[in-house]
Amino acid sequence: MRQKLVDGWRKLFGHENYTAENVQCEGCRSGGRVADTRCEARPCAMERGVESCALCEEFVCQKVGHLLARREGMAVFLNRRMQDVTRAEFELCARQFCSLPTLVRLLIEAGKLPPWCGEEAGSG
């Protein structure tokens, strides 16, 4: 599965540094494996002792801004490359862009966003 992810990232994003062995990241709050040794978010989160970057006073910063996207937005952004990508490849690679609802929930809980931000568009 990790090899398929790496192959997809190469095809979609042009990433060349990932391998099936190094692609697994254990998260910002972990001292374990990290997929991207150039990641700025993880050491920052560890230094600040935050459970999530969303709870940091400086969120959204340049360290995480480029990581915030929705899968639909990525499809639009990558439209020129999408013709040669299968649905399965895209779905696997787009998983990393499914965290926005969680971030919105955390920001609402922290009082950084009004509750209506968590409502589905068109329902209010």
Blueprint (SSEs and pairs):
Elements: H1 2-13, H2 41-48, H3 71-77, H4 87-94, H5 100-109
Helix pairs in contact: 1-4
What does this protein look like?
The protein has about 120 residues and is mainly α. It has one domain (about 1-120). Helix content is about 35%, strand content about 0%. It has 5 helices and no strands. The chain has helices spanning about 1-15, 40-50, 70-75, 85-95, 100-110. Helix 1 packs across helix 4.
Short summary of the structure?
This protein has about 120 residues and is mainly α. The chain is about 35% helix and about 0% strand.
Mean pLDDT value: 81
How many beta-strand runs?
Answer: 0
Low-confidence blocks of residues: none
Tell me about the largest β-sheet.
none
The termini sit apart by 40 Å
Structural class: mainly alpha
Helix fraction bin: 25-40%
Number of helices: 5
Shape category: globular
How many domains? 1
- Radius of gyration, Cα only, in angstroms? 16 Å
Order of helices and strands: HHHHH
Q: Could you tell me the strand content as a percent range? A: under 5%
Overview features:
mainly alpha; 124 residues
